[in-house]
Amino acid sequence: MVLPFDDTYFMKKALQEAEVAFEKGEVPIGAVIVVQDRIIARCHNLTEQLNDVTAHAEMQAITAASNFLGGKYLKECTLYVTLEPCQMCAGALYWSQISKIVYAAKDPERGCGAMGTKLHPKTKIMGGILEREASDLLKRFFVKKRK
To answer: Helix H segments across 52-121?
Structure first.
């Protein structure tokens, strides 16, 4: 039996955010932060709209979740993001002490794994949830951008 609120369910919500980014002309990366099966932050890349290189989906989600919780730590929270976090986002996630990171597609060049970025010792990380869907969306975006 599949539970309604599993990793796939929440990654689909992150993919919906990535689609919003795609429609806005942003690199299509989406993120949601969940606590006790409740989404407390829904975000996507806003680097073009805000003219801010730090406006990644994860950074927006950290801020939104912290505001929702009324504190800077995201203990007991899970981040679902459509692309493996970069070094900058992984650093912010380290300081937030988030409990778990679930990503869809791996970023073999700029992802936190490839960069050797350390996460908080209590943070669990796993990838590959809806990887094909996230990768396809990114590929579609860059094909469209290069036309």
So the answer is: 57-69, 87-96, 112-115
